[in-house]
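$ ./design --mode recover --in tokens.txt
reading tokens...
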């Protein structure tokens, strides 16, 4: 049985939403858990950045890394607009029940339309 690999580009913030951090991973749940637990001496630990407020899904590490670089190169305002479009209340998506559930067909189509397929075939979150 073939299991399709998924890669995630994600944005974290702190409680006051003053700091944004963009990263890429192949295990979003584990990676955000590591940020929340402050297990590694890092930027996110130093600035208390541990709220998952945005993410995108890809089936290619190359496209995920390319997208991460695009997001990092963008202005703060572009990031804010992107986050607000997906998550208007800036809720911590780590605590949302749908974050790690399989994507619905409707959501899959919405994500594909939003990103023009630029991240490859969107399948499921995990």
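writing sequence...
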């Amino acid at each position: 049985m073939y299991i399709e690999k998924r890669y995630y580009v994600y944005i974290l913030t702190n409680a006051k939403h003053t700091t944004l951090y963009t990263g890429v991973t192949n295990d979003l749940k584990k990676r955000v858990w590591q940020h929340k637990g402050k297990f590694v001496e890092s930027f996110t630990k130093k600035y208390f950045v541990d709220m998952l407020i945005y993410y995108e899904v890809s089936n290619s590490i190359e496209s995920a890394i390319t997208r991460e670089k695009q997001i990092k190169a963008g202005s703060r305002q572009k990031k804010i607009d992107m986050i607000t479009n997906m998550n208007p209340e800036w809720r911590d998506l780590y605590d949302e029940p749908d974050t790690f559930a399989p994507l619905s067909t409707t959501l899959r189509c919405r994500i594909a339309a939003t990103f023009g397929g630029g991240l490859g075939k969107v399948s499921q979150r995990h």
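exit 0
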